[in-house]
Design a protein that fits this description.
Length: 294
């Protein structure tokens, strides 16, 4: 069977280039694709991708109110971490320093601008949910301290990891693999296409709610392998902070919006399910490639 157009590596690169230029430094305003043909191609890829994902979950029973949503959503969080448990145990207890460094550097390739995604998530929100998104964004900004901005902390960690890989002559893939591109592209896609904001809410909830278990595994693995604190700090920080974000996102954003309408509730649920599928495929691939290369 031919690979769907949206799943071609070159096609996902088209999306990544568009998203990174759109959210790039304003000084590079002249490189943002804005021709009708360019935008038509982006929409073609995005629409085909969503059509595929929607068909994949068409038989799922979706929650229709806050009470149903809470239990359903909690189950998805637990299931995602259970499905990648073997990889997390490997990172925590078995992975070599180079394997952990390889994983961190692969994450950096597709980490994207999560702080910008969080900024876009605030647009149009006119209730108390906006305060939770704003607080989450301010945490991403290091609460006003430049060296504590999460992107800067992650850069510090990945810099050490890249140096470690150089020391053992281990290289990252020349091209970013498709599952990694899709994992990075999805939330930026939804942040920029305003009709998908409820899906973005669901996806961010899954990201924040499931993240502490992954960060704890990486932190413990780094400690076991003797990584310096400047390489560990970003990951250690997120064990605690994402646990808070995950709870606040559920209680202050997802559940209040689930009260708004059945349609909104189910659209957020679709965001959870699609993000679940993309993330699970990504972590399966990362598990495979880390073990093969390290």
């Amino acid at each position: 069977m031919d690979t769907p157009y949206f799943k071609l590596n070159s096609t996902q690169y088209v999306l990544q280039d568009y998203y990174s230029s759109t959210l790039g430094d304003p000084v590079r305003f002249n490189v943002i694709p804005d021709s009708i043909d360019s935008l038509r191609e982006i929409r073609r890829i995005e629409d085909e991708w969503m059509s595929f994902e929607e068909n994949a979950i068409v038989n799922e029973i979706l929650p229709s109110n806050p009470t149903e949503f809470k239990g359903w959503y909690t189950d998805k969080l637990l299931t995602l971490n259970e499905n990648i448990k073997e990889f997390l145990v490997y990172l925590r207890n078995e992975a070599s320093p180079s394997a952990i460094a390889f994983y961190v550097c692969m994450e950096e390739l597709v980490d994207g601008s999560f702080d910008d995604v969080m900024a876009l998530a605030q647009l149009g929100v006119n209730n108390r949910s906006k305060l939770t998104i704003a607080e989450n964004y301010w945490d991403e900004m290091g609460n006003g301290s430049y060296d504590k901005i999460h992107t800067e902390m992650f850069t510090e960690s990945s810099r050490y990891c890249r140096n470690l890989l150089d020391e053992v002559s281990l290289s990252l893939p020349t091209n970013i693999p498709t599952p990694c591109l899709m994992n990075g592209n999805l939330v930026t896609f939804w942040a920029l296409r305003r009709k998908y904001i409820p899906r973005l809410f669901g996806a961010i909830g899954l990201i924040e709610g499931s993240a502490p278990v992954r960060f704890k595994a990486v932190t413990k693995g780094m400690e076991r392998c003797g990584f310096p604190e400047e390489a560990i700090a970003y990951h250690r920080e997120h064990i605690h902070i994402d646990a808070i974000h995950g709870k606040e996102w559920l209680n202050n954003i997802l559940l209040p919006y689930a009260e708004q309408s059945e349609r909104c509730c189910q659209e957020m649920a679709r965001g959870v399910l699609i993000r679940f599928r993309v993330a699970e495929e990504y972590y399966r691939y990362i598990d495979k490639i880390v073990r093969e290369n390290c």
